[in-house]
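seq:
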Amino acid sequence: MEIKVTTDKNMATLKLCGRLDTAAAAQTSAEIDAALKTLGTIEGLTVDADELTYISSSGLRILLSLAKRYRNFKIAEVCPEVYNVLEMTGFTKMMSVSKALRRMSVEGCKVIGAGGVGTVYRIDGDTIIKVFREGTSMDEVQTEITMSKEAFVLGMPTAISFDIVKVGSQYGLVYELLDADTLSACVRREPEKIDDFARLYAGLFRQLHSIEVPQSSSVPKALDRERQQVRHLLRYFSQEDVDLMLQIINAVPEGNRLLHLDLQTKNAMVQRGELMLIDMGEIGYGHPILDLGHAYSAMVTLVGDYEKIIGMPKELGTALWERAINYYFEGLPEETIARRKAQIEVVSCVRNFSWLALSDSFPEEVVNQCKSLFAERIANRRDYILEVCKTLDDWTL
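struct:
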């Protein structure tokens, strides 16, 4: 029997590997106690039973002792044989116990989208799977499912996954009955219909931004998360640079509208002439300018391989964006539209860099590229950017 203890902030995970039988129970219990004592004070413990193949009554007593010791206690990734034992002995009623996840492979599958959070693959004509980046926790995956369901109830056209799987050591969400293509793929395949696709894209933004998020919702406040992400950039940028980005974010007006916050064209699926969202990891509520700024950062000023990330040539993507934003503001005076576009561009400057906070494992060359672009896009334009920020309050909802 082998054990391994890891921590994440004030939570600990105890991984059990092998057979927890009567012969091994006493030594295993002593090793667990010794390992947990080195952690100091922790608020909760998860037993990772992914590699636990057998458990005896002595092993059950160890789990019961741990459950009494830690208020926030759960057993996860339990194989069917061990789960049956826990169920028959009443453990599944006394504490949180979850079965091992179904395992899937994406080998040979087509990539239809990729970003900082994960990669989306097509399994077959009706099934796609979003594989989260290495290190994503189960709680983060569950949060995305919760946000997807809440956004769906509020009126956002989104696919909802009810099946969490494992792909190697990473988590995945399976979406079924999605016989559809990404908006990027459709535009690339039929560029002559770019105007129709732009109207769909603009209509999706307008639909989202017409939804008012009630105070009772669990959808997070977008500005709070944006500030948190910018502060995380102190690992890459100076305090002065971070403060300048925070000045831009702090100028964004408050709002209560539903925001996707990563609505680039690979995150929208065209299904029977309508758009459906598949990536809900960043949704929040706030002012629409933040959502449009994020999208502008992806569709126009993306840092990285545009065609690989967005899924079409840059000239096609920027042309789609220009048409879509004009449709979004359709009916407003030309002077107002020009001002709104300038405001969106300024707010987008932060997203050019804040997405680095989504992971601590981006390649060094990507981080260095962002750092070298900071002077060009923000620092050297400081006065202009701050002047535009003074006008953001005129964008009323």
